[in-house]
């Protein structure tokens, strides 16, 4: 698995070093550099899809039929003509004028900037939605700087990126280049695990999907993946619409969709300000609405909102300046209003919105009485790339079964996550499936739950119970760590790193299997073979009367209660031994350093 933070940092340091050596401002440099990242990522996906197309490809006269643009369209992928492929650009000679190259219009090209501009134009010719979107100002760069940038972004780690991680790299660069662009109206990059959770619960299959705060397009990307994984073609079964006030973000969204082979209609600028405009005239027309809107926006003009309608539960509170002081419930009302009679919505929202008072509470009461509030999930801190704030996921469903029509599933997932590093948490794929399984049981979809148990059993490859496997694997990991420590301690003189690396690889492999077993056991202990039950501290199905008793709160913590304290699985004696060994090692290093400093001072006569 790639270290995305390390990759971001390395790419940025290299690219910024070149920016410092150019005469371009950050804003002039920003989009062209993002365009090169797009080009590199597009090429990576192109090669992956090309390999799929060539599998079992018919041949004539012993020669495999060449791939064509139509082959890529059939797989919802972006076709790249030869002159727009990253590898082609990398192999160009230093002296472009000597290569005799001509652009798409037949004119001679004498600089690398002209060649890259031509590549961008050729790609726009392949995708109607990209026309006028890709940067074509590469003649502003010297050939030397542009060639070096192409080399920097020819990083094999970019071949491993999936989902909307490219959006995260875009965001990282935008923040570094021009914070006023990236931070305008809040975070536009939504963490991948939150997006996947929303998509998994919404389950898009066919119809109209709207994201009225679409940012870099993560909701579209994950929805497309979900539909394609189900054996359908996302471009044939889905229609994607987006609104994004910040034009830079809308460009990134279109680039992101194109590289994933998705088509959609994205509007940007003032006409796409969702507070005041239903830019696609989709009120009451959407099968799915997904969004991560900016939280707690203030000074929103009330009269303009009322004129724009989409407020089935009335206006939130208005101040003396005729402004909405907190726009969270404008967003919530809009999302509901966009849905058709069978629509589903899923969105990220500030945690404070679950319990806010005044007119917000009245809107919540009206909302829950519709019977269309489906699931509420609390999310802990540090899920967002740049923010530490907790949040909640809200889900509406106008096609709920009669058995759960007047019920809401509350899930408190604030203590359920995987630590990526000190400042970032996420849900792994198995954790996402586990939470999805709770929703399946609430909806009565036991067959999906059973399929997940079978997936666990297949991944673990054992007939033993999950609890037995956890115990057995934990013992193996502990024994392997102990064996490693003994071997490493006995080899202090030789310091053979390969021995330690071999043990580390074995421990990592075993730990990964143990993690799967623990997640399987986490789920099975609570719901067995597929019987839903409220779990203290985790989940609760609340009736309308119970929600009324809680003063119309949508805060999962108010319903699920407190979980019993569980053993964290850490062997105290083993961990203390590890800490002691680390301390001794650090002390030895410190002593060596002090000896070196003392010796140097003596030599200096001090």
SSE diagram, text form:
Layout: H1 4-21, H2 26-54, E1 59-60, E2 63-64, H3 69-74, H4 86-90, H5 112-126, H6 143-152, H7 165-177, H8 179-182, H9 192-202, E3 207-211, H10 218-229, H11 234-237, E4 238-244, H12 247-259, E5 264-268, E6 286-291, E7 300-301, H13 302-308, E8 323-324, H14 328-338, E9 339-350, H15 359-369, E10 373-379, E11 391-397, E12 407-413, E13 418-421, E14 424-426, H16 429-442, H17 446-460, H18 466-490, H19 497-527, E15 539-543, H20 544-549, H21 557-560, H22 572-603
Parallel strand pairs: 3-4, 3-6, 4-5, 6-9, 10-12
Antiparallel strand pairs: 1-2, 7-8, 9-11, 10-11, 12-15, 13-14
Describe this protein's structure.
With 606 residues, the protein is α/β, with parallel strands linked by helices. The protein has 4 domains: 158 residues, N6 adenine-specific DNA methyltransferase, N-terminal domain (Ferritin); 258 residues, Rossmann fold (3-Layer(aba) Sandwich); 86 residues; 35 residues. It is built from 22 helices and 15 strands. The strands form 4 sheets. Strands 5-4-3-6-9-11-10-12-15 form a 9-stranded mixed sheet, sandwiched between helices. It has a two-stranded antiparallel ribbon with strand order 1-2. Strand 13 and strand 14 form a beta hairpin. Helix 2 runs parallel beside helix 12. The radius of gyration is 28 Å and the shape is globular. It starts with a helix and ends with a helix.
């Amino acid at each position: 698995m790639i270290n995305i933070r390390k990759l971001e940092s390395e790419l940025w340091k290299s690219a910024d070093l070149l920016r410092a050596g150019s005469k371009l401002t950050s804003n002039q440099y920003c989009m062209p550099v993002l365009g090169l990242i797009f080009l590199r990522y597009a090429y990576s996906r192109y090669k992956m899809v090309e390999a799929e197309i060539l599998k079992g490809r018919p041949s004539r006269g012993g020669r495999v039929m060449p791939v064509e643009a139509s082959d890529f369209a059939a797989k919802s992928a972006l076709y790249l003509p030869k002159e727009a492929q990253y590898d082609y650009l990398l192999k160009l000679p230093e002296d472009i004028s000597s290569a005799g190259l001509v652009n798409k219009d037949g004119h001679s090209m004498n600089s690398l900037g002209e060649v890259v501009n031509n590549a961008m134009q050729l790609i726009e010719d392949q995708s109607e939605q990209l026309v006028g979107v890709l940067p074509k100002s590469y003649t502003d760069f010297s050939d030397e700087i542009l060639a070096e940038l192409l080399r920097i972004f020819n990083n094999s780690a970019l071949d491993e990126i999936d989902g909307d991680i490219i959006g995260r790299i875009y965001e990282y660069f935008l923040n570094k280049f021009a914070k006023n662009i990236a931070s305008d109206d809040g975070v536009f990059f939504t963490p991948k695990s939150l997006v996947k959770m929303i998509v998994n619960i919404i389950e898009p299959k066919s119809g109209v999907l709207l994201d009225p705060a679409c940012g870099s397009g993560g909701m579209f990307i994950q929805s497309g993946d979900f539909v394609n994984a189900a054996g359908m073609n996302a471009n044939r079964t889905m229609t994607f619409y987006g609104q994004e006030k910040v034009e830079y973000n809308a460009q990134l969204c279109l680039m992101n969709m194109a590289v994933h082979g998705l088509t959609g209609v994205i509007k940007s600028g003032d006409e796409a300000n969702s507070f005041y405009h239903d830019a696609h005239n989709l009120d009451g027309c959407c099968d799915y609405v997904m969004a991560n809107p900016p939280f707690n926006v203030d000074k929103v003009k009330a009269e303009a909102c009322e004129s724009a309608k989409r407020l089935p539960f009335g206006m939130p509170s208005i101040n003396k300046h005729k402004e909405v002081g907190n726009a969270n419930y404008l967003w919530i009302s809009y999302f509901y209003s966009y849905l058709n009679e069978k629509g589903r919505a899923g969105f990220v929202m500030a945690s404070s919105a679950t319990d806010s008072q005044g007119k917000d509470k009245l809107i919540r009461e009206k909302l829950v009485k519709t019977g269309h509030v489906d699931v509420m999930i609390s999310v802990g801190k540090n899920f967002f790339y740049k923010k530490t704030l907790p949040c909640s996921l809200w889900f509406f469903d106008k096609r709920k079964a009669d058995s759960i029509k007047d019920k809401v599933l509350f899930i408190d997932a604030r203590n359920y996550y995987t630590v990526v590093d000190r400042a970032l948490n996420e849900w792994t794929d198995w954790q996402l499936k586990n939470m999805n399984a709770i929703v399946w049981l609430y909806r009565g979809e036991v067959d999906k739950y059973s399929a997940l148990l079978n997936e666990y059993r297949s991944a673990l490859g054992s007939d033993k119970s999950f609890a037995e496997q956890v115990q057995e694997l934990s013992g193996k990991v502990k024994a392997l760590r102990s064996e490693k420590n003994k071997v490493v301690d006995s080899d202090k003189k030789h310091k053979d790193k390969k021995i330690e690396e071999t043990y580390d690889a074995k421990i990592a492999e075993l730990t990964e299997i143990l993690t799967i077993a623990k997640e399987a056991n986490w789920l099975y202990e609570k719901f067995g073979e597929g019987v839903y039950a409220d779990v203290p501290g985790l989940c609760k199905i609340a009736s309308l009367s119970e929600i009324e008793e809680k003063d119309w709160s949508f805060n999962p913590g108010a319903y699920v209660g407190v979980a019993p304290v569980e053993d964290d699985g850490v062997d105290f004696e083993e961990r203390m031994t590890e800490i002691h060994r680390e301390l001794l090692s650090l002390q030895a290093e410190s002593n060596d350093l002090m000896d070196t400093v003392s010796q140097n001072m003596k030599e200096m006569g001090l």
